[in-house]
Amino acid sequence: MNIDTLKRLIGLVVFAIVQVLILNRVHLFGVATPLLCVYFVLQYRLGEPKWALLLWAFALGIIIDIFSNAPGVASASLTLSAALQPYFLNLFVSHDAEERLRPCIETLGIVSFMYYCLIQVFLFCLVFFTLDLFSFFNWVYWLECVVGSTVLTLLLILVIDSFRRNG
Fold first, then answer.
1. Pick from 33, 17, 57, 36: which is nearest to 157 by CA?
2. Which alpha helices (DSSP H) does 22-49 contain, by range?
3. How far, in Å, CA of 64 to CA of 21, rounded?
4. Contact criterion met (CB below 8 Å) for 162 and 141
5. Which residues contact 32 (CB under 8 A, 6 or more apart)?
6. What is the DSSP letter of 29?
7. Contact (CB, 8 A) for 99 and 47
């Protein structure tokens, strides 16, 4: 087992524990839940195999689903985010960038990184809450959950990435 695989495995365990034990219990204003698990997909390096990203994202999602008693909501949302991640990342990375670039504020710049995260987090939250609520009967609540969780998750990702860069 190489060091990158070990780091990803430790990251997977940490993200799963933080999401299941702490963040799933936070409901700001009754609608906004931080879904930090998407950051695991966002920080995947450019140039890595796409199939590996899909497997890691599905593994994290299924672990979160098992311990959250959710029927495939996180695994479906994370797998879709993982499938789209390389394409969205290519929109914000210059063509002469290094091959194994890790997306962060330092490498992409604050504006590009924020847009990259905003698109990914919004799509993740959209799919997550659509599958979770599985109804458009109360579409205002659904929209509040999507927008509130997107904003809260994006702020949390920007703060964490700023500390990782400086730390």
1. 36
2. 38-42
3. 10
4. no
5. 144, 145, 148, 149, 151, 152
6. T
7. yes
3-state helix, strand, coil in the chain (%, to 5): 75, 0, 25
Q: What are 18-50's pLDDT values in tens digits? A: 989 988 888 888 888 899 999 999 998 888 889
Q: What is the pLDDT of residue 167?
A: 46
Which helix H or strand E contains 103, and what residues bound it?
none
What sign does the CA torsion over 88, 146, 127, 8 have?
A: positive
CB 54 within 8 A of CB 61: no
**Tens-place pLDDT, residues 92-144:** 887 666 677 888 888 888 999 999 999 999 999 999 999 988 776 788 888 99
Burial class of residue 42 in the structure, from the number of CB atoms within 10 Å of its CB (0-12 exposed, 13-18 middle, 19+ buried): buried
Q: Is 32 helix (H, G, I), strand (E, B) or coil?
A: strand
